[in-house]
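Subject: two folds for Thursday's group meeting

Dear M.,

Sorry for the delay on this. The cluster queue was jammed most of the week, so I only got both jobs back this morning. I'm pasting them in the order they finished. Each block is the input sequence followed by the predicted structure tokens. Could you check whether the formatting survives your parser before we put anything on slides? The first protein is the one we discussed after the seminar.
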Amino acid sequence: MYGRLPSLPKKVDSEVLLPPVAADEVLNNNSLIQQLTTSAKDAALLHGVLMRTKEEPASSETTSYAPFSLFPSPVPKKLFMQAFEVQQDFNILVDKISQDSEFLTKALASTVEVDEFTARLFKIYQQVLKEGITQVAILFYPKGGRGGIEPSQSVNRSDYMFEKKQDGSISLKQIEINTIAASFAGLADRVPDVHRYVLNFWGKPDEAAKILNNNAAKGIVEGIAKAWHMYGSSEAVVLFLVEKVSRNIFDQRCLEMELWNKNIRVVRRQILEINERGNLDDQKRLFIDGCEIAVAYFRTGYSPEDYHHEECWDARLLIERSKAIKCPDIATHLVGTKKIQQELARSGVVEKYLTECLKSAERIRATFAGLYSIDEGPEGDEMINKAMEDPESFVLKPQREGGGNNIFGEELKQLLGNIKDGPKRSAYILMDRIKPQTIKNYLLHPGTPLKLSECVVELGVFGVYISIRKCQKMVMNESPGHLLRTKSIEFADGGVSAGVAVLDTPYLT
């Protein structure tokens, strides 16, 4: 089973500030860089670091390597470990908030008035609460017999940047927590092998030995498999809810194949297909094309574009009303909204949910950047004025996931000017803009000329949990692995799927 912290290689040298690959004489050695780049691309293809192409995003007939960095990027060991230490605290916090309907209702009240997408999600949440939550698993007792329980499962990912302060120190600051469709665990597991190959090819075996293994995909699959077993039917299947077109299909397949290796059948369906061919029986068991669904694992459903027909909303409600174990359920999905993230930053809120362990609350709060409401009223007015006076110090965030949605600089100032006198401002929150440490690296994008870039890195730590809500007991709480993404400083926002960031590996310093 996966422990609280990742295993570190014995050869990690805490005195090394930057790996040798970051030295300017190496980064500017064009002949060496070209050799390493060619070998790295081949290694990425060999190890399955793959994506479908922009030209044929719905076909696997033509594929290419997923964007990745030529060299592993330096990451402060202390902050890397801090991110892992706090992840299980975040798992507990997310679970507890998802069970507090009063808090969710109050916190999202202003947002649902002006943000249609969040309002539609919240309407489903209200209906499920009114009918009564029905997802059920079977608990087998040691002395025989069995009983029904109400499990909650989540695969989340908390994302961070390394903020460089004026005194030169570096701190870990959370950007967001993703509670639905947290992706790239499958490919992230494979990137370390590519970077080991690059360093060994170059003749740096000691440096290659320092690169960590990543168990993110296996840990996520352990969670899904455990939920499947808890459902109590060996004939039931795991449902992957997926987009109609997915360039990132191989990342999903990594998880799917791990489940098949455990003799757990997986079916892939779009949300619209659930409405067209899915149904609930009189026990509220969910069936699709005759297959009973034990676990509904969402890899879509986080964006308005995912609900392109009204029937998609009907399908989401059908899933939520069923006995299938949702990963995540609608309440946990809502916990990942930016408004909830902002409300958690208020004094005393985190501590309210973690009264049994105030050290957990301290660990969580230490990662928070400044988060501010801009709802109508004196507090919101003050923050809007501050942001318009100094737009480079803030980020404006809508209630959206998937990357590329945040608003910066002059665009932030202009948008705030347009919405400051009306209720639409409640669809956004403000966050202090993190000033991250920068590094140099080569970012390999298919079809893009090779160049040395000044970059920032973003660390994500995956969390997997299963809790029994009636007795408020965690039966699984793990932080199995990580995702490191790197992008050029010329881009303010955007992830790997958006074509901005690349996959990377931490080289602990």
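Second protein, same layout:
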Amino acid sequence: MKRVDVAYVLLFDKHDRDVLMVKNIGVGSSYYTLPGGAVEKGETLEEAAIREVKEETGLEVQIDGIFTVSEAFFKERGHHTILFTFHGKIIGGEINISYPEEIEEITWMPAEVAEKYIHLISGFEGLVKRKNRVPYILRDADR
């Protein structure tokens, strides 16, 4: 199986209530996720997260720690995926769908609704609203 790293960003509105979600156009049906995507070769997780949010939503963000790290096996794709979800803060830009062939909608969703699309396992209800985070540390060892 091929290892694939994915970086997502959890963004709250200015009232700290709603979470920004994108509706991706899927093969069978559309589905909601946080803005994010695959990390490209030579890119840090943080760089990928910032780039993906800009590409998918038009917004400029800064990263503020890690929300969750999870992993999944997508056998049909042959991928072993590690999913890094960052906390982020919007620092500029305007919401805009740059890739209408990939993104159907960008919407603000109540945190408790968005949580259902973030694939948290049972027992972690309410985690989104608690806003726990751990630091993201880039060790620049001869990058």
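Two things I noticed about the second structure. The radius of gyration is 15 Å. The chain has a mean pLDDT of 90.

Cheers,
T.
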